[in-house]
Amino acid sequence: MQKNPFTSEIAHKCRGVGVIIGGSGLIGGALVYYFKNRVSEVEVLAPNSKKLNLANPEDIRLYFRQYRPDFIINSAIASINCTAELAYEVNYLGALNLANIALEHNVPYIHISSAATMPAGENLTENARLALRADLPNYSKSKIMAEMSLEHLAKTRGLDYTVVRLAIVYGKHDHKIQGFHRLLFSIADRAMPVLLTKKGAMHSYSNVRKIAPFVHHALKNRQEFSGQSYNFADSDPVELGRLILIIKALMNLKTPHALYLPFVFAKAGKAIIYWLIAKLNRIGIEARMPGEIQFLESFYETQTLNVKKVQNSSFHDANPEETVFSLLPKLIEYYITRWEGLNLIHTFNKEFYVSEKHRIDEFRVTPGELLEKIHSENEKSKKSFHERSVNI
């Protein structure tokens, strides 16, 4: 059997080829950036849906015969509120077709999965997975089926795969406003008057910048990581209510108020809004609910992932101190600037941040003063963040 040049001992002497599916998304974009800028021995390809139809096996076969990659990473996902057809074709059928191609070319296949495949509960291990049921959301159902098919292909045909199961992902460059960033947007847009959760509800979070180093390490150490699934998240879970209040404090907003809306009222409100949307759509006014609302119940339930399997592996987290709390000021500044530029929200506190565009003139004329100002603001930001965190 021919050795994979990427994982062999002579990897540093040759240039391998990797294919990353879903490279335009938050996770895929971070993977593409990492491999292009940090891994000199690999050239990565990131075909979009126009170049590669995941639901068409022949389309995939022709593409991979042309480029003959040394590994495949699948981070493509259909949105959480997509139709059953799209969820099946992208999340499941696409994953299955890529796995078959990995078998055909005898290369490793890294599959990015989600905690949406798991039940509620504390300290959930990799073995905790929801039973496949018809009444599950399309997103969860398709991701569960993908994981199960990968396990089946490994047992029956020797597929070399690794599943990386993520919690709530946070990081820059999410252009779709979903997941954690939907929460951030709702607070910035004053669309959350009270807390849509219950006190003590805990969740795990995954740092998008740490995913690529782990995937790279797993590719280089196939004997250890092949045929395995890993929960990949920050070590410490986060109380959702506390996280919301800290974001509110950092933005200097008055809402949401520190009142926990009972689930029964939240569920009733969701039903009323769905009814209103249906009426609006009937008269030609396009309206829709954020896809995250279908997981409303999970806002009120604890779901924390056990990450000891990753911690006990040969992978080393280079920045264990970097968490959703430590990155909040930078994330807020980045997304507020972006959303204001797109006219999605209005400026609510000009003292909170200074858009980098406004600082270009200072950079040109008074760089020394600008540098002192930035250093001073960083110190104030750290102090303010610590004080607000303690008081919440």
List the helices and strands and how they pair.
Elements: E1 16-21, H1 26-38, E2 42-45, H2 57-67, E3 71-74, H3 84-105, E4 109-114, E5 121-124, H4 138-157, E6 161-166, E7 168-170, H5 180-188, E8 202-203, E9 205-207, H6 208-220, H7 222-225, E10 228-232, E11 238-239, H8 240-250, H9 263-282, H10 296-299, E12 303-305, H11 308-311, H12 324-341, H13 360-365, H14 367-391
Helix pairs in contact: 1-6, 2-3, 3-4
Can you tell me about this structure?
The chain is of the alpha/beta class. The protein has three domains: 11-167 and 204-235 and 304-316, NAD(P)-binding Rossmann-like Domain (Rossmann fold, 3-Layer(aba) Sandwich), CATH 3.40.50.720; 174-203 and 238-301 and 323-348, no CATH class; 354-392. The protein has helices spanning 26-38, 57-67, 84-105, 138-157, 180-188, 208-220, 222-225, 240-250, 263-282, 296-299, 308-311, 324-341, 360-365, 367-391; strands at 16-21, 42-45, 71-74, 109-114, 121-124, 161-166, 168-170, 202-203, 205-207, 228-232, 238-239, 303-305. The strands form four sheets. The protein has a six-stranded parallel sheet with strand order 2-1-3-4-6-10, sandwiched between helices. It has a two-stranded parallel sheet with strand order 5-12. Strand 1 (16-21), helix 1 (26-38) and strand 2 form a beta-alpha-beta unit. Helix 2 (57-67) packs parallel to helix 3 (84-105). The chain starts with 15 loop residues before the first strand and ends with a helix. The model is unreliable at 7-14 and 350-355 (pLDDT under 50).
